[in-house]
Amino acid sequence: TPRVFSGIQPSGGLTLGNYLGAIKRFVDMQGSGVETIYCVVDMHAITVWQDPAALVRQTRELTAGYLAAGLDPTRSILFNQSQVAEHAQLGWIFNCVARLGWMNRMTQFKDKAGKNAEKASLGLYAYPALMAADILLYHATHVPVGEDQKQHVELTRDIAAKFNHDFGTEFFPMTEPVIEGAATRVMSLRDGSKKMSKSDPSDASRINMTDDADAIAKKIRKAKTDPEPLPSEAAGLAERPEARNLVNIYAALSEQTVEQVMAEVGGKPFSEFKPLLADLAVEKLAPISTEMARYMQDPAEIDRILKDGAGRARAIAAPILQKTYEIVGMVGA
Ligand code: ATP
Ligand code: MG
């Protein structure tokens, strides 16, 4: 059976980008003869500074977001990465498989380290090798991610292929990235050339899953656009990143194609389109944020769900790590 693995960092509050590019698609993949494993990747989050109390809250809030959006802990495995030590253990093996030259090509490191890369953590640099371990520890066949993670999933395939080649085995599968839909790269509302991110210092750049109706309407009203009305057809969006972003969000939220959306709103000025988009966003997000708040009332229940998930994840991961150690030549009991 196909096995799906993916994760989100508890590095801040969830955004509309995380919802459309990841969580909504995680929910859609649940069931129908697929095994689904979704992780709160707290070890990735600490590659940049996280206040410990905030990390605790963000881990529970992200789990609440998973649950509120429709992930079902009886049909999927939900857990946090640090509680299954095999991730770190396989991560080390992959640090010894991945090449410096490969890591140097990773654009996320360059974006996150910024100009002063000397001050970045070693963990931020090694992040993609740990991500490969997250995925390959379960022999996952499919990884739903946003467009920004495509390079890391390709690196995962390179690591699997080099491991298999070096040790003369077929042990690790070639995992497929799944990057589908109208909103695989939701852009910042302030800058059409940057992706929306939970760690962006500007709150106005993103819609948070916990924003109320007024905040959502205000952020969309203030979203940067050019002055022209929407084009009449989808092709006219090609050179207009901000307009394209808002239309893509509308399409993903309403589960339509961009062409269908343009048939409905093509030619409208932003003064008419933005309120439609705001109403749609509130209609889709409000029930989820209400549910999130309800789950957050009972942190012990969230912790219980994570602990149960960690046990089930470890049951899959431990034999795969043991076999990896054997292949590598680690003597064990
Ligand atoms: P950070 O700024 O801390 O990196 P993030 O918002 O980029 O946070 P991640 O935890 O790094 O979130 O990514 C979780 C998932 O959400 C990944 O699959 C990623 O591709 C997806 N994702 C993140 N941002 C977007 C976006 N703007 N549009 C679509 N998908 C996104
Ligand atoms: Mg990210």
TrEMBL record:
Subcellular location, record wording: Cytoplasm
InterPro entries to which the protein is assigned, alphabetical: aa-tRNA-synth_I_CS, aa-tRNA-synth_Ic, Rossmann-like_a/b/a_fold, Trp-tRNA-ligase, Trp-tRNA-ligase_bac-type, Trp-tRNA_synthetase
UniProtKB keywords: Aminoacyl-tRNA synthetase, ATP-binding, Cytoplasm, Ligase, Nucleotide-binding, Protein biosynthesis
Bilayer-spanning residue ranges: none
GO-annotated molecular function: ATP binding; tryptophan-tRNA ligase activity
Main function: Catalyzes the attachment of tryptophan to tRNA(Trp).
Family membership: Belongs to the class-I aminoacyl-tRNA synthetase family.
Name of the protein described by the UniProt record: Tryptophan--tRNA ligase
Species annotation: Salipiger thiooxidans
